[in-house]
What we know:
alpha/beta; Ubiquitin-like (UB roll); Elongation Factor Tu (Ef-tu), domain 3; Rossmann fold; 3 domains; 6-stranded antiparallel sheet; 15% helix; 34% strand; globular
Amino acid sequence: xxKMICRINNNRVFDVVExxxxxxxxxxxGVHLSHGCLDGKCGACRTKLLKGEIREIxxxxxxxxxxxxxYFYTCCCSPASDIEIDAExxxxxxxxxxxxxPVKIDQMRLINTNILEVVLRMPPKTSxxxxxxxxxxxxxxxxxxxxxxxxxxxxxxxxxxxxxVSNGYMSDYWFNKAKKDDLLxxxxxxxxxxxxxxxxxxxxxxxxxxxxxxxxxINSLSETFLNDKIELIWGSKSKSEFFKIKYRKESTNLVMxxxxxxxxNLKKFYIQDYAIENxxxxxxxxxxxxxxxxxxxxxxxxxxxxGLPESSFFSDAFIESN
Length: 322
């Protein structure tokens, strides 16, 4: 296969291979680019082509406007020449090893009618490192599903928060068949949804079980990291869809917003609306959004439109699967 060159920010250069995604070529070269679902749906690997030519090798769910402005998804495109892209190497991922590990179900409990908290136990002396905010894939026979890690980065167990999905194979397993000490496998960790280490104020936007990675992040942060309280804004369609969470109250200001109203003359109020109204000092904030893709797209449009640099907006879109 033909080899070419990809140049990213700070003049970092790595080899890219014809017919291999730019994201995979980067990983093979020890370069860690922003990524999420790895399937062309979430947009976490979206970047801009500055020079050269690319071609799509896997369908990418990207807008026509983005395409016309030179944006593309690195998990879906390969080089057609030497290229230059607007992307950065993430040193935080350098020592994070993606691996497959056997696990057993240690605990399960319903925390809402349709929400299950699962604790997975790894074998003794297993070395599994992740950055709070990342996700894993749970493998049950031939089925594989992605779940954000909701626990802090202590060794030995991983906590997941799982939403019931109608007619879903894995939902049927989790809610009707799973039992303590069931043997499963996990693969990971994946994703680049984690805190960037700077002094800007952090605004977290979560919908539904999109709260999970934020619980991992908040409960893993050191006291020296925080210059100010984190703002955690959590939205759901109704009060009945919220559930009790454990988080560090001393470092976090939690706001819960019910977006679904039954009053015809009252406009629905979403978490992104609350955020844009209450945090207008654009130069001093970073936005982290997780959950419903519509919320994420709306929040990004609002904040970037208000002057927030795209480099200060991070997201993890939950793409529902069965």
